[in-house]
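Worked example 3 (structure in, sequence out).
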């Protein structure tokens, strides 16, 4: 399998390593990024964005907002399958359907950073076949749990597990004071560790998630309800939270 990865960042490199290709080509708006990615995988190389080569598979690994445009620009270079690993399904699958009509196509979402792989990988298979099956088998063989979903189910889940979760953790980080670690409780200690895990990453990625998925506003509203509650209302909210 000859693979072209569009977007030579962390997740593009992850896909190239674990999807089972025989040879990999990276391309990126930053040519140096593509060249650097090519040095990390045996038999990999960098190609220009406007390459006229054809590949068995094209994988789009760019920020969510750029996926439809990247699929439109590069899907024609695939002879067998076009996939993405963007983390968003509605617009990605629609773009795959529009621009890769004759190819197998699927949208994968690794629910982890490459440094924390393997993990859960939901996938929407819009048009299956032997090539998509081979990619899935390779990802499973690398220890990932690849499970099928739908665009609506995936994106609805991301509102909670990403947008709402990130809002809650970042809000705590902004509101919390520095304290002697010896004061931390069994709750605040792990919460502070979650803060460290979030703020040590790329803020642009989190900004894309917040822009794409609803959720942050509802967390803010819930926090306001708790902050403004009298004793009886607080007890009711506490009980509601446990249901």
């Amino acid at each position: 399998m000859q693979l072209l990865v569009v977007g030579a960042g962390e997740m593009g490199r992850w896909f190239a390593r674990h999807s089972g290709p025989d040879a990999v080509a990276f391309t990126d708006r930053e040519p140096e990024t593509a060249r650097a990615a090519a040095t990390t995988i045996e038999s990999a190389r960098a190609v220009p964005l406007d390459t006229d080569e054809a590949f068995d598979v094209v994988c789009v690994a760019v920020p969510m907002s750029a996926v439809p445009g990247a699929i439109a620009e590069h899907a024609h270079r695939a002879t067998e399958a076009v996939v993405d690993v963007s983390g968003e399904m509605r617009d990605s699958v629609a773009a795959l359907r529009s621009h890769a009509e004759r190819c197998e196509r699927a949208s994968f979402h690794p629910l982890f950073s490459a440094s924390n792989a393997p993990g859960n990988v939901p996938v929407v298979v819009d048009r299956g076949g032997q090539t998509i099956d081979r990619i899935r088998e390779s990802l499973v063989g690398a220890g990932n749990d690849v499970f099928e979903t739908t665009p609506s189910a995936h994106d609805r889940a991301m509102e909670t597990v990403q947008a709402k979760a990130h809002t809650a953790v970042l809000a705590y980080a902004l509101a919390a004071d520095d304290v002697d670690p010896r004061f931390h409780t069994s709750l605040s200690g792990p919460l502070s560790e979650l803060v460290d895990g979030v703020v040590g990453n790329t803020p642009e990625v989190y900004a894309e998630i917040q822009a794409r998925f609803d959720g942050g506003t509802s967390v803010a509203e819930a926090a306001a309800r708790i902050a403004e509650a009298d004793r009886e209302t607080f007890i009711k909210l506490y009980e509601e939270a446990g249901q």
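Notes: The beta strands are 2-6, 23-27, 44-46, 55-60, 78-84, 104-108, 120-127, 145-148. The mean pLDDT is 96.
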